[in-house]
Request: fold
Amino acid sequence: MRILTYAQAIREAHAQLLAEDPRVFLIGQGVRNPWYAGTSLQDLDKEFGRDRVIDSPVSENATTGAAIGAAITGMRPILFHPRMDFMLLAADPIMNQAANWSYLFAGQVAVPVVIRAVINRGGEQGAQHSQALQALFAHVPGLKVVMPATPYDAKGLLIAAVRDGNPVLYLDDRWLYESEGDVPEGLYEVPIGSAAVRRSGKDVTIVATSYMAAEAVKAAETLAQRGIDVELIDLRTIKPWDRDLVYSSVGKTGRLVIADAAWMSGGIAADIAAAVAGDIFHALKAPIARVCLPDVPAPTSAALERAYYVGADDIVANVEKVLL
Amino acid sequence: MNCQKSGAISCSREQLMSFLYGMQRIRRAEERIGELVASREVRTPCHLSIGQEAIPVGVCAALNEDDTVWGGHRSHGHYLAKGGDLNAMMAEIFGKATGCARGRGGSMHLVAPAQGIFGTVPLVAATIPLAVGAALSGKLRGTHQVAVAFFGDGATDEGHFHESLNLAALYRLPVLFVCENNLYSTHLTLKERRVKDNIVESAALHGLAGVTVDGNDVTAVYQAAQQAVHLARIGEGPTLLECRTYRWRGHVGPAADLEVGADRRRELDEWQRHDPIAQCRALLCTRGVSSDSVDSVAAKVREEIEAAVRFARQSPDPDESELLQHVYAVRRGC
Reply:
């Protein structure tokens, strides 16, 4: 195995997909520009040409709609939105069109498009460069939503998303770009809908998404020093999320903390909590805890950002709370 | 308005007969759908294009079978003109299992992939960027397929429209933007929505060809579409084709909506004197086609439409077990 960063793993997945499949192309704002994409798309235009690596005008509706139209007519586009916030301008093509067409036309039309958006939190960027809107898109039937937390999953989930044949939102987090891990050299898939156990334990289950899965690893180490044995599940796919794995873990531990660095109200943590409480209430020994962002827009000042974002300490505090 | 002249001289009698058949088929289908809505047998919202039939017929006559068309809420005409099955459309409007979308779509969501109709949907302007994507797809695959976006003048008020024109012009994509300018966006007249009657000027602004034609002259529409399709196919990029026309019925349903617009009654009288079907019939007479031959088209069409209504009525409803199917496509290979 080789060690790659998360950003390098994303880039490698793009390069191998572009090399493997002539139907794959990349379109979006800033695909040539590290300021938007970090190193995650570096020099792909030089390697594959600007016909297939298209740095587009800031026209979210047209580029997203065009990617969808190309997907319907036989291509496998990867659409890039450098900030998830910007993607809201393309809510119609994503939520009304890509999500609906398979159902609406009784399976006669498929929309094999990957819509990648970067969650770009922190760095004093404020309310419109920082949003984590996975729950909004997970709400819509017809969309799938994946959020890799490791370099291995960053590569494998992108490959699975392109091959899936449905509209898949691929949400990566800038705070993970420099994290490192083993990444196989060839093409491989991480199955969509499958979560991963990062650590086995018996006292409490932590289900975490994206950046919070990395924070939960740190939290679990701290808790282990205090004699608390955590089972950590990295959810990886937000829609459809892996009920079997979550339920079997909670069935074993009887306690659940959900960590999702997005707003609490109407979020994915609420969905998981409701499902667990509704389906396996008898397994629970304590109330479910959620570690989420407060229901306010992202502030800019670093002092306020420190108060706003959650991390390993918040997970530790909530695990201790459900063990009281 | 500087409209392109009629293309009648270059059209053969056979072509004109084919145009007449296509237009009468759309007209009669929509008159019949209007009756079915009025009698409450059909409940899904139906947006009729009566008076505008020359545009889909003229444009689609210039297309190949594998060219794609993309439509909106008022797309019965686009579907039929591109070769969509009449029975499947009527059954769809009845919400039946034999409908083109198996009863999931109704009038506003028509589909026939084998005929290049990948979908019509009612979100105004929504399929304009999708047509751009189909054109991009054709260009990347080297197929020389042309994509056509049909939309009304209301859609030109949307950002989708302007972004799409720019993108298509920038990448010289083989797409034809067909604006069916019927002078109304639901109940609002053009004057209530724009300072100027200048939709076609959007083309120059975004750097693509722009042409205005008399949308009630099927030969003029055909000729303009042929030219635009030719340019698109040889890599000369997109065209905005503004077709001036008028919708005889209201925004939705069979009524004429005479209460909207200060001049609606006068406009309607004037445009009905400029009926695309009557003009085509007159042209055929000047070419020596007997009135019996011309009349026989209407009779044939009437039988086809009645057969389609019978087919729809006799078809089964979709089974409840289908409710959860096709939310996602089933993966085939990779």
About this structure: DSSP finds 13 helices and 14 strands in chain A. The domain at 2-183 of chain A is CATH 3.40.50.970 (Rossmann fold). The longest helix of chain A spans residues 210-225. Chain A has two domains: 2-183, 196-322.
